[in-house]
UniProtKB/TrEMBL annotation:
PANTHER family: MULTIFUNCTIONAL PROTEIN ADE2 (PTHR43599), SI:DKEY-6E2.2 (PTHR43599:SF3). It comes from Acetobacter senegalensis. This is Phosphoribosylaminoimidazole-succinocarboxamide synthase. Its EC number is 6.3.2.6. PROSITE patterns: SAICAR_SYNTHETASE_1, SAICAR_SYNTHETASE_2. Pathway: Purine metabolism; IMP biosynthesis via de novo pathway; 5-amino-1-(5-phospho-D-ribosyl)imidazole-4-carboxamide from 5-amino-1-(5-phospho-D-ribosyl)imidazole-4-carboxylate: step 1/2. GO terms for cellular component: cytosol. It is an enzyme of class 6 (ligase). The keyword Cytoplasm does not apply.
């Protein structure tokens, strides 16, 4: 494919101008960072796996009527997505206490939460993505009230569906992070699921052994990071050759 203009480079992905107006190419890198860039490394082959895993999950979600930015996978490391205006929020859904919620409230990791919990963080690297309340989001204009309601509803539906999907392959969906974007068609705007869904932004534990099959293996120096991502792809039935 012809050389394309780069629009943005993030920690794990690069966005290029797409072949048609209103499209963007999302390129998956092997780079991994943790602690807002405090730790970084390369996990060879991670980009290929996340491209495939995210494609698979976005397609399954589209099938149940969740609108997403995903159009099609182009090659091993790239996918074509709709151009959207990213809403500057990280929407985290949690089913089991782990990571920051366990630390913040002194809950033992692995404790099932009384119900699924949704949290919002303001996407801002310089500030370290601070947690934000619904009131902060509305008052500072990061999203309108109806957008927040829509994102919350979609996040809960995504959670219900993905919990079932992963449960069926022996994996517990502990928590995950979503991002949403505004997609414009003429004067019509709709909110769509954007970014990626992969072991980089989900916590996935084996139901039998509680083995971590996600980015915590990198964050906590547990080793076998690529093998864990491969295992998720294998169980999803999409292990790419390579
Ligand atoms: O660190 P914390 O426990 O708040 O993370 C909750 C979930 O959100 C985890 O699945 C983590 O992978 C994801 N996350 C993310 N990007 C961030 C922060 C958290 O994908 N910047």
């Amino acid at each position: 494919m012809a050389r394309r203009r780069q629009l943005y480079e993030g920690k794990a992905k690069i966005l290029f101008e797409g072949p048609e107006p209103g499209t963007v190419v999302q390129y998956f890198k092997d780079d991994a960072t943790a602690g807002n860039g405090a730790k970084s490394g390369i996990i060879t082959g991670k980009g290929v796996l996340n491209n495939r895993i995210s494609e698979h999950l976005m397609l399954r979600l589209q099938e149940i009527g969740i609108p997403t930015h995903f159009i099609r996978r182009i090659n091993m490391r790239e996918q074509l997505v709709k151009e959207v205006e990213i809403i500057p929020l990280e929407v985290v859904v949690r089913n089991i206490a782990a990571g920051s919620i366990a630390k913040r409230f002194g809950i033992e990791e692995g404790t099932r939460l009384p119900r699924s919990i949704i949290e919002f963080y303001f996407k801002n690297d310089a500030l370290g993505d601070p947690m934000a309340s619904e009131d902060h989001i509305i008052a500072f204009g990061w999203a309108a009230p109806h957008e927040l309601e829509e994102m919350t509803g979609m996040a809960m539906r995504v959670n219900d569906f993905l919990c079932g999907l992963f449960n069926g392959i022996g994996i517990q969906l502990v928590d995950f992070k979503l991002e949403f974007g505004r997609h414009w068609e003429g004067d019509d705007m709709s909110i769509v699921l954007a970014d990626e869904i992969s072991p980089d932004n989900c916590r996935l534990w084996d139901i039998q052994t509680s083995e971590k099959l996600d980015k915590d293996r990198f964050r906590r120096d547990l080793g076998s990071v690529k093998e864990a991502y491969q295992e998720v792809a294998r169980r999803l039935g999409i292990l790419p050759e390579a």
